[in-house]
């Protein structure tokens, strides 16, 4: 607040803030500030607050100003939106100073209506006004911390004329900016056309390269898709074959009644086992081909070698075993009862239909 001359009538104005203002910004939020004067005829007499950026409809300022009074009857208020060209009028009002002079202590904390340039009441501004050294001033004590009360404001014809003039300047600036922008756009368009004509072949070559790249990408994606399908089909076939193999193994172990049909004694009981049958067939084969004693001896040596191979093997998972094969498992010896490929849950000590302790 500026220093006051002793005895000089003055008016102190504190602009707190405004609310419910109209929005004059088409893009983004408006940037309001407020300016005051007691003399419309002197544009330089206006004092203004700082600009509250992006405040929209509810700016705050909390700034104070002092005006010398020489019988001026009203304080003129204008709320503006800062623009890059001409600032736009958000609202305005004329506030009679007389209501301040007659308020207790010459101080009035008021809420005042403001008006659009067309004269529509829209929004309010909160001002604290204090008159000093004004004849007829109410000098009673002011109670601190009082709440703002509704004050009197109106439209001054001369003030509205000024505000409309400001609004017209702002519109003219917008039109000029748009026209200039249009000229720039036209110029840019002409330049662009010239560049297009001058570089037509280059653009066509670029487009052709893009089409070729797109076709190559499409071909690659199709090949990738086909490979994925083939891999999926292969995995399904592998899974199906594994299931069939396991099913055959299970069916070989159990009949429809769920009991094992393998008879280990067939291999080891004299006369009726497969071992004897196999031996009988071998003897017949030797006789059919006219085999000599030396041939029989050779076959016996071969059988002996096979027996040696079957003895002392350590049982392994995933290995193929034939009936009669012998293995060791956890220090014990077992003999294979029927051909199979070993699995993790068919260990010799548990799979009694496949193995017998030797």
Automatic annotation (TrEMBL):
Q: Where is this region: Disordered?
A: 200-219, 224-328
Q: Which CDD domains match?
A: ChiA1_BD
Supply the alphabetized keyword list.
Answer: Hydrolase
Q: Which residues form the C2 domain?
A: 1-112
Q: InterPro entries recorded for this chain?
A: C2_dom, C2_domain_sf, CBM5/12, CBM_sf_5/12, Ingression_C2_domain
Q: Where is the composition biased (Basic and acidic residues)?
A: 224-234
Compositionally biased region (Low complexity): 235-253
Stretches of Basic residues bias are at 277-289
Family annotation (Gene3D superfamilies): C2 domain (2.60.40.150), Carbohydrate-binding module superfamily 5/12 (2.10.10.20)
Protein name, as recorded: C2 domain-containing protein
Q: Which organism is it from?
A: Linnemannia gamsii
């Amino acid at each position: 607040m500026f220093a006051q001359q002793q005895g000089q009538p003055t008016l102190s104005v504190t602009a707190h803030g405004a609310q419910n203002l109209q929005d004059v910004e088409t893009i983004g939020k408006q940037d309001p500030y407020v300016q005051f004067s007691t003399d419309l005829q002197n544009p330089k007499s206006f004092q203004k607050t700082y600009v509250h950026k992006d405040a929209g409809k509810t700016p705050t300022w909390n700034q104070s100003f002092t005006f010398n009074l020489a019988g001026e009857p009203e304080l003129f208020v204008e709320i503006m939106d800062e623009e890059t060209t001409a600032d736009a009028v958000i609202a305005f009002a004329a506030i009679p100073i007389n209501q301040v002079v007659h308020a207790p202590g010459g101080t009035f904390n008021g809420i005042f209506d403001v008006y659009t340039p067309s004269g529509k009441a829209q929004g309010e501004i909160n001002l604290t006004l204090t008159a000093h050294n004004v004849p007829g001033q109410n000098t009673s004590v002011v109670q601190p911390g009082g709440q703002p009360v509704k004050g009197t404001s109106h439209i001054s014809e001369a003030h509205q004329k000024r505000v409309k003039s400001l609004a017209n300047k702002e519109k003219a600036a917008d039109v000029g900016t748009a026209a200039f922008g249009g000229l720039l756009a036209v110029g840019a368009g002409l330049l662009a056309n010239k560049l297009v004509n001058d570089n037509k072949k280059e653009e066509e070559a670029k487009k052709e390269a893009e089409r070729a790249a797109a076709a190559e990408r499409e071909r690659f994606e199709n090949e990738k898709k086909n490979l994925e399908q083939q891999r999926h089909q292969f995995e399904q076939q592998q899974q199906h074959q594994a299931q069939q193999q396991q099913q055959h193994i299970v069916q070989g172990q159990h009949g429809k009644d769920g009991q094992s049909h393998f008879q280990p004694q067939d291999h080891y009981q004299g006369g009726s086992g497969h071992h004897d049958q196999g031996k009988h067939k071998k003897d017949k084969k030797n006789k059919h081909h006219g085999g000599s004693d030396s041939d029989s001896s050779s076959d016996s040596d071969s059988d002996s070698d096979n027996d040696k191979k079957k003895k002392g093997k350590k049982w392994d998972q995933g290995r193929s075993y034939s009936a009669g094969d012998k293995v060791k498992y956890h220090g014990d010896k077992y003999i294979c009862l029927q051909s199979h490929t070993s699995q993790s849950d068919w260990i010799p000590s548990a799979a009694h239909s496949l193995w017998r302790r030797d």
